[in-house]
Specification:
Helix 1 (51-68) runs parallel beside helix 6 (243-257) and helix 3 packs across helix 4 (153-174). This protein is an alpha+beta fold and 264 residues long. It has 2 domains: 5-87, Phosphorylase Kinase, domain 1 (2-Layer Sandwich), CATH 3.30.200.20; 91-242, ATP-grasp fold, B domain (D-amino Acid Aminotransferase, Chain A, domain 1). The chain has helices spanning 51-68, 107-110, 140-150, 153-174, 235-238, 243-257; strands spanning 10-13, 17-21, 28-33, 36-39, 44-47, 75-80, 83-87, 91-102, 118-128, 178-190, 193-197, 205-209. It starts with 9 loop residues before the first strand and ends in a 7-residue tail after the last helix. It is globular, with a radius of gyration of 18 Å. The chain binds adenosine-5'-triphosphate and magnesium ion (MG). The site of adenosine-5'-triphosphate has 16 residues, from strand 2 and strand 7.
Length: 264
């Protein structure tokens, strides 16, 4: 039977999802995906018919894959279209944790970095979540100090999970001739543990197809081996592509992540 969301208590509504109480279980909540798309910390905003559906598919397939690989996530199930059941947060951590393999996006401007520079080991950055302040980045040596001198192990836990998830997804997308460039993930505390929460969809990462069948990806700069113009992610929207095109690329992502269940 379909879930009647009008009868449920709305706990929270954000830019892309609504959270509803689950009357049958106080320890879990429903996450309903919306057709809204935003960029520039919410300044650019549109509605794309059907976006919620493809985001829900992508999110479901990625989280089911991560759970299978043993990652600690909030995801439980996808009980109906556009809806996920997840473990309810005990405490939200207001930090976005970014991992980068290849230099792209904002880091090219503020980091004075050539596009396509490859990072090995992966680069991790912590951004304090605050749209009006444009999610300012935390100073790395300060984070290290917090971990080593104040026992703030949440930071190192989040970095560890980010690295683990990046390596899992980078390898998964590589099966489809696509390079995971970077992503941002969110965390909370559930049952006393740092747990991966929220969503992983086309707005969470950059995905660039390979430029040729056997790209040489072990170089200092891998730009010539990749095809950024064929990007599948939300950069299409940020760059002003028409909404049909944006949605068709999100559908390609969902088609690919739909095949993750067949991966070993
Ligand atoms: N497991 C969970 N339990 C409870 N709330 C959750 C869980 N996972 C995600 N949320 C919350 O769902 C809310 C809606 O998500 P959405 O991404 O739409 O928000 P947003 O507008 O992007 O705001 P935010 O900047 O907080 O992400 C967020 O506040 C998010 O923290
Ligand atoms: Mg969000």
């Amino acid at each position: 039977m379909a879930i009647d969301f009008n009868a449920l208590r709305k706990l929270n509504e954000g830019k892309t999802k609504i959270i509803y109480a689950n009357p049958d279980d106080l320890k879990s909540v429903y996450m309903l995906f919306k057709d809204d798309i935003t960029a520039g910390d919410g300044v650019k905003h549109d509605i794309i018919q059907g976006k919620a559906f493809v985001d829900w598919q992508t999110n479901r397939d990625i989280f089911e894959y991560l759970n299978r690989k043993g990652v600690c996530t909030h995801y439980i199930s996808a009980p109906q279209e556009r809806v996920c059941l997840v473990k309810k947060l005990d405490r939200k951590i207001d930090i976005e944790v970014v991992t980068r393999r290849v230099a792209a996006g904002s880091i090219l401007k503020w980091g004075d970095m050539p596009e396509g520079k490859r990072f090995d080991p992966l680069v991790t950055q912590y951004h304090y979540k605050d749209d009006p302040l444009h999610d300012p980045m935390l100073d790395q040596s300060y984070v290290n100090f917090m971990v080593n001198n104040k026992g703030a192990t949440e930071y190192s836990e989040m970095r560890k999970i980010n690295d683990q998830v990046f390596e899992i997804l980078e390898e998964a997308f590589a099966n489809f001739q696509i390079q995971l460039i970077d992503f941002k993930l969110e965390y909370g505390i559930i049952d006393g543990k740092v747990t991966l929460i929220d969503e992983i969809t086309g707005g969470s990462f950059r995905l660039w197809p390979y430029a040729n069948e056997e790209p040489k990806l072990n170089q200092e700069n891998v730009l010539s081996e990749l095809n950024p113009a064929g990007r599948l992610d939300k950069d299409n929207y940020r760059m002003g592509e028409d909404l049909d095109m944006v949605q068709s690329k999100f559908a390609v992502i969902a088609e690919i992540t739909g095949k993750f269940k067949d991966l070993p």
